[in-house]
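Handout, section B. The chain below has 249 residues.
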Amino acid sequence: MSHVLIVEDEAHLAKGLQYNLEAEGHSVAVVGDGERALELLLGKSAKPTAFDAVVLDVMLPGKDGFAVAAELRAAKQYVPVLMLTARGRPEDVLKGFASGADDYLPKPFELPILLARLQGLLRRREWMQQSLASSAAPAAGNQEYEAFSFHGRTIDFGKLELRVNGNTIQLTLMEAELLRHLIRNEGRVVSRKSILEEVWGLHEDTDTRAIDNFIVRLRRYIEDNPAEPRHLLTVRGVGYRFVAEPEKE
């Protein structure tokens, strides 16, 4: 049984979600503001609960959903987050991913879609836990890019980890998926439009500067000198190109 936290200030919507999630066999807690959500998720409450996933609305009294997600990730709390955003606001979607959300769903939504998205996040969490519990390394080629090594760096897509210079950096799901997309197209130019559609599933006429912000963050992770990148290259006016092993200067 999975433990799910719903963070939603619209009481009727929160109760409806709770009823349906419990009918699916989940254990559900509901809070109506970001501060209370952080108390529960970061163990600051009298009775902290370990949650397997969070359904997080953007528009909340006090701290909004973006701030909640960002504080969770800053505290190294990587519980999967399904963010609920306003319809017609792709900028909210991109801002949600930048703050650390793992998936999004625009309001109003169909219940079966929410259940399917949530189940997908729970399955990924279960796979990650199984991977962490296993002492054996995955067989080479067992899964497409389960782990990818380049220039002394290793990305473990199962654990959402980047290992570089003896340090381990925890990636969000969207950071890992963006890296996976670039790696699949190694050496080729990947347009911003392709990233919007194939990584984030956005087809609207969206401001692509949010992608640039993601790239800046990824460069901090993998580049020796982020100001002079050698792996994540900008192709002016088009997009980006990933180079695993740059030529020696």
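Note. Residues 137-242 form a domain with the Arc Repressor Mutant, subunit A fold (CATH 1.10.10.10). Compare this with the example in section A.
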